[in-house]
Amino acid sequence: MSESKLPLTEEAVKKEQLSDDFADLREDFSKFSEECAFLFDAFAAITREPECITEHTSEGIRHLCYWLKYQVIGYREKIEAMQEQWRSLSRKQ
Question: What is the pLDDT confidence band of residue 89, given thresholds at 50, 70 and 90?
């Protein structure tokens, strides 16, 4: 029987899942990073013409800043949880 046909241990399954989770997180963060670059360029453009900042623009900026803040918090929490899972798996070896 070849090794590829052997059933995976529980630890191997967890490591494989964690590896997939890391890949997903990296892809999500890459998309988020692109969105941030676009928003930062937009914010910079707005500051060059402050007379164009209306109440709606100001409210939109506040909303986007709130969204950015909680996206970053979410990524930090995901990373911390995944690090803890990795440490737990590493201790078992």
Answer: confident
